Amino acid sequence: MWQPPPLPRTLEAALRDLSDRSPPVRVSAVHDLVPYLEGDRFRVLAALRQALRDEHPTPRAAAARVLGDQRVEECEGELLALVDDPDVLPAQVALDALGDLGTPAGIERLRAALTDSRPELRFQAVMALPRHAGDEEAERLLSAATHDPDPLVRDAALRTAQERWQGRGQAPRVHRAARAALQDRDPGVRVAAALLLAAWGDDEGGDVLVQLLEGKIEPRAFQDEVEAMEVAGELGLKEAIPALERRAYGLSRLLREQYAGLARISLARLGHQRAREGILRGLHGWLRSQREDAVIAAGQARLREALPRLEALMREPERIDTTLVRDALEAIRGAGS
């Protein structure tokens, strides 16, 4: 039977429940302290400091997370101490919180964590420290982290680099490290390296992406498959056509229709006649949603043969969102310039 969500605790109730016998109740009480932080900062910070000393690791981690999210610099010392917690969860969250604070002492602790014996802390440092480092330091530490003993740390280094440079191939040391990582013994790391290289327009990892699309490599995250479908067309990976055809027209499309559409766009960029003709037909569809989906696909696939129809649709604002049409026209014309 449906029930309304429970009302948030009052401050007095949250303070009381910090002493409850149940760790999940104490965690919940920590989160319910947040709305009272500004109005009664002294008591709330005292309560959060109490939670940082909780006998169970999850309330300690919850308190550290709140302090980081709320940028509570007054508790920097407690967070620095919590990084040495014997339980890895609160230690990792404390390190992440220090990254949120971005204080000089916190950044130094992040640097020290790059060589911590616990891989979870090295992982967290690799994720957080580049936000506070210049390009040179970020490039140095991320390229070094691609040689970490733990595959998740190596993976994080490559993904953080892709986010850091956003497709700008301006990190030659990381670029070389990513090419070397294509031979990594961990398939997830190989995929991360291939996606980073693809974001920089480098097709050296194309065979890895094809293996991912063929199902020969299990993706670490579903987004890897989505990104691989997108870049296959951008990089001109003809070897990916059979795998993309299965995703676009095989039985699996019934379960993952949105990804089937991505596969068809990528096929169209690769010159696949069936995919291109399907997008062109969609531009004449009866339903507005069908026409608009086709307009977006035509722009993403850079279909120059769609230009006459798109230009005609620009004169029919009652039948289509002309902003979508304008964007598609700009994408197609820009690709041909």
Could you please describe the fold and organization of this structure?
Helix content is 66%, strand content 0%. The protein has 337 residues and is an all-alpha fold. The chain is globular and about 70 Å long.
Q: What are the key terms here?
A:
337 residues; mainly alpha; 3 domains; globular
Short description:
With 337 residues, the protein is mostly helical. The chain has helices spanning 11-17, 23-32, 41-52, 57-69, 76-82, 88-101, 104-113, 119-128, 135-145, 151-165, 172-181, 187-199, 206-213, 222-235, 241-249, 257-269, 273-282, 288-301, 307-313, 322-335.
**CATH C-level label of the largest domain:** Mainly Alpha
* CATH fold label of the largest domain: Leucine-rich Repeat Variant
The CATH superfamily of the largest domain turns out to be: Leucine-rich Repeat Variant
Shape: globular
> What is the count of DSSP helices, taking H or I runs of 4+ residues?
20
| Architecture (CATH level 2) name of the largest domain | Alpha Horseshoe
- Amino-to-carboxy terminus distance: 60 Å
Based on CA atoms alone, the radius of gyration comes out at 25 Å
Instruction: List the secondary-structure elements in sequence, H or E.
Output: HHHHHHHHHHHHHHHHHHHH
How confident is the prediction overall: mean pLDDT?
92
